[in-house]
Amino acid sequence: MLAAVSGRAGRGWLRRGAWAALVAVGVIGPLLARAAWEGRGALAQADVAAAAGRVDREILHLGRAARWRVPIAGHDEAALARLMAIGEAAELRGGAGSQTALMAYREARAALLATRAWGVADRALLHAANRRIARVMAEQELVFGTDLSRAGSREAYHRALLEQAGAGGWPWAAVAAGLTAAAALLALRGPATRGRAVWGLVALGLALATWALR
Questions:
Q1: Judging by beta carbons within 10 Å of its beta carbon (0-12, 13-18, 19+), is residue 87 exposed, middle or buried?
Q2: Which residue ranges make up each domain of the chain?
């Protein structure tokens, strides 16, 4: 008798688990597919712009590709690497190239901050972008004879501001993820099919919120 009850309970858990997995795949799958599609499309547009010699548009499209971040795809990492390379090459040219360098570094930084979930995807790259932005801004201040730091520490001043602006941001995503997990657990343990469906929809909504906050 106990074995039969235990068997039915086990099969119930398996059915609920399968239902939850099906919902997760049905929702997350299309989202990931679209992000990968859009990201690769933006990367292709960046290639077209580069071939036409339009570095400004190349930077714009690379920033878009980097923002369509998908953990299992590599287009975002490729876009970020290209942005940093464009910035470095422009910075080495000096003169008017400093503005192009600043544009590329800022686009990489903005993309990293726009796609964080538990934190920044590549914190080392963010710090590198901050350092280079601060360096270029300090060099521009020297050219124009200005000093916003008012203490002769232009680069340190700008870097401190950049690091401060990029700090934090993850707690809201963590809260949304926790709520998603709680709703998913209730969906599995709900006493009735209707109740599980309702909690499943709640879990779906919170999963979308978590993805949007990443």
A1: buried
A2: 14-169, 170-214
